Amino acid sequence: MQYSAYYVEENDGVFSASISRLELEKPADGFVQIKVSHSSLNYKDALSASGNKGVTRNYPFVPGIDAAGTITDANSSQFSEGDEVIVTGYDMGMNTPGGFGEFINVPATWVVKKPNNLTHLESMSIGTAGLTAAASVFKIHESAMESDLPVLVSGATGGVGSIGVMLMSKLGKEVSALTGKSSSVDFLKSIGATNIILRDEYLEAPAKAMERPLFSSAIDTVGGKILSKMLAQISPHGVVACCGNVAGIEVNTTVFPFILRGISLCGIDSAESPLDFKTSIWEKFANEWKLDLSTSTKIIAKQNLQQEIDLILQGGQEGRVVISHEE
Ligand SMILES: NC(=O)c1ccc[n+]([C@@H]2O[C@H](COP(=O)([O-])OP(=O)(O)OC[C@H]3O[C@@H](n4cnc5c(N)ncnc54)[C@H](OP(=O)(O)O)[C@@H]3O)[C@@H](O)[C@H]2O)c1
């Protein structure tokens, strides 16, 4: 049997993608085969699709770090045919073919049973971006001291950022959204941001070692100069959840925010989080953290992926992109 997939090939160092028919293999011992109904587009997928060897070592390859669907062949006692499931992260979409194909074969240890009150589409509107935003919210709730100052979210219109804004707002926090898109002010307000800060204005003045505290905590999806600057603006015993690097991998700071204000810089790695942690986040998204992502999610066919990949690489996406394999 064959299946259809967004297939990236390398020829003489040039990467190109096509919708191809591939041979479906039986799942190995301990693996399950899933008919994918929906996947989603994350920044890492765009890197894999464009030949970034730090993400995907060998091509040809089918990207897609997120998948939701139904088990069609279970070579593991943990699952049965017909189970509705979600897979995010681990090696899927990096070096194990992922959700941009209509079928995946993955270890059962990567698979979460989909909560009943989330559809496949809803779960992929959340996807790895949502798990990352949720893990950041957990870090902040676990360790940050209460403060009336707003929470700052950078890269606020992006996948992780927009869900971070929504979650913080749902939890009753005032949210300052830092964005490069002046045209997205209404969007950011509609998802719960109370104050919009434009990136160019934020970066106008160079970062100082210590500044007046403006934010209680922060979710930083971009790194670089923005992360460097916000560290000096967090109020005592606040937390900065560091999860992304679209603006750069370097951070310039001093020890002052840490030793004079006791702030914490916490790393987030949602892909490799233990399955129990992912399961508990999916339960939250299905219940008390349920979000309406319908107006911030674009649903596309895999034939239209290339333009969305180009847009995410340019920092131009607003909200989430879900790939539907349903005809
Ligand atoms: N640690 C983890 O577990 C984990 C998991 C998922 C994602 N990530 C990382 O998180 C980051 C965001 O991922 P995503 O899927 O949300 O991507 P995304 O949808 O493209 O969002 C990134 C957003 O960052 C802003 N941005 C883009 N280029 C920028 C630049 N040069 N300087 C400053 N801001 C810029 C843009 O928002 P505005 O225009 O609103 O500023 C953009 O929409 C990526 O680095 C990704 O690798 C990490």
TrEMBL record:
GO molecular function, one term: acryloyl-CoA reductase (NADPH) activity
Location of the Enoyl reductase (ER) domain: 17-323
Name of a matching Pfam family: ADH_N
SMART domains linked: PKS_ER (SM00829)
Domain of life (superkingdom): Bacteria
InterPro entries (UniProt xref): Acrylyl-CoA_reductase_AcuI, ADH-like_C, ADH-like_N, ER, GroES-like_sf, NAD(P)-bd_dom_sf, Zn-ADH-like_protein
Residues that span the membrane, as ranges: none
Record-given protein name: Oxidoreductase
Source organism of the structure: SAR86 cluster bacterium
